[in-house]
Every structure is written in C-alpha cells, then in structure tokens.
Amino acid sequence: MQDIRRAGRTVLNKVPEVTLMFWAIKIMSTTVGETGADYLAVHVGHGTSVTGLMMAGLLAATLLIQLRTDRHVPWIYWLTVVLVSIVGTQITDALTDRLEVSLYVSTAAFAIALAAIFAVWFKVERTLSIHSIVTTRRELFYWAAILLTFALGTAGGDLATEALGLGFNVGVVAFVGLIAVVAAAYALGANAVLTFWLAYILTRPLGASFGDLLSQSREYGGLGLGTVSTSLVFLTVIIALVAFLSFEGDAGRSPRVSHND
Predict the structure, then answer these.
(1) Distance in angstroms (rounded) separating the CA atoms of residues 114 and 9
(2) φ and ψ at 223, to 5 degrees?
(3) Quick check: pTM over 0.85?
(4) Could you tell me where the DSSP H helices lie in the chain?
(5) How far is residue 200's CA from residue 207's CA, in Å, rounded to a whole number?
(6) Which of 30, 108, 214, 252 could form an SS bridge with 245, CB 3.0 to 4.6 Å?
(7) Above 70 in pLDDT, residue 2?
(8) Domain boundaries, the chain
(9) Residue 256: φ, ψ to 5°
(10) Per residue in 35-64, pLDDT tens?
(11) DSSP letter, residue 72
C-alpha cells in the first residue's frame, strides 16, 4: 500500500477489460494508424516529419487528459491508442525512409527497448499486469510500453511483408497464425501477462498488413480501396464500438482492483 501511495494518486484501473471487443478495436486502431499515417504523410503532402510532429502534439495533449482522469473513460483511452498507433508508425517510417535504418536494426532496437521498459517496470512495480494500472507511475510505464509495441510491430511487420517478401496476403495469414498460437498457449495455461503482451505486439503488424492489403493499389498486391476509404471505414466502426462501451457505463469500465494485484 505504501509503495502505491508513493507512486502517485490511486485511481480506478485505467485499462479496459480484455474482451473480444477490446481486440477488435485494437486491431482496427492499428489499421487506422497505418493508413492514417500514410494518408497524412503522402496524400495530404505533410511528409513524415511534419505529420510526426503534428501527431506527437495531439498525442501529448490526449495523453495528458488520459492521465488526469481517475477511471477508465472509453473514448479518451481509445483516442490515445489510435494516436499512439499513428505516432508509433511515424517513428518507424522516419527511421526507415528518412534515416535509412535497416528494418532488421530497427526491429531489434525496438525489441530491446521494449524489453528494457518491461524490466524496469517489473523491478519498480513487481507486476506487469494491466489489471493493476492504478497509479500514474504504472500508467506511464504502460503507455511507454504501448508506444514501443506499436513501433516494434510496425518495424516487424514491414520486415516480414517487405524485406522478407511475404507480401500483404501472406503477412495477414502469418500474423493471424502467430496470434492463434499465442491464444492456444493462453488457453492451455500459459502466463496471462506474457501472452497478453505477445498478442498486443502481434496485432500491430496484423492490423498494418490488413490495412495495406485493403488500401494499397492492386499493382502492389492490395485491393485498391485507398487510404481515405479504409481509414474512414475503420474509424467509423471504432467510434461506434467505443460509443457502445461509453453508453454501457459500467460495462465499459474496469472494476476497482486490489492493491495487492
């Protein structure tokens, strides 16, 4: 109890319950991150640097609102996730496109950075459970990990679909298969925290590959729906699902948890 008090104010758990709807919104938010970043950087013409700065500013403002709330608020939480998705994509794209960093190097670097965040988080808090995000310090660890999962997922997804030549179609199948393996491991009794974070990382390249499959032209192996249409469709569905969670009230909030979690 003293450790939690020293870590900052104690609040209701700030992360939603992990349900099928949680994963559906998560995957769609990663798709929006991929197609939205491409649209702003390429089609609007802002470029990766300007787009990155704009999205980073919006993320900082939204994250501040998220941190100041004392409970899980669906629309604030998921808006933060969508913006983290876009910023994470922009970080990887900037390293790859502007600085010409190899996808092998960036994937390895993000994996090491994420492992370091988890190591420090566990050393300080003695848990990586998302069911105990009840202090500001824990929430800061959580969002730092989330940002790195998006950056790692983007780099790993691009490495698989582009550098290794799997393409969008095979990439989607491959990442669905990997997620299925993680789900099976969880069902057979594997560590819940480990399987959650593995699935969270893998849904990023799945969403990105799916977004590219829908939005890219047929010349590049996509279905040619375009980034605008793909982004709008997924954003509309996300808004509808988040609105449903918000109107559900307590059904869209995580319960108060024990300080011993």
Answers:
(1) 26
(2) -95, -5
(3) no
(4) 2-6, 20-38, 47-68, 74-93, 103-125, 136-158, 167-187, 192-215, 227-248
(5) 11
(6) 252
(7) no
(8) 12-251
(9) -65, 140
(10) 777 777 666 666 667 777 888 999 999 999
(11) -
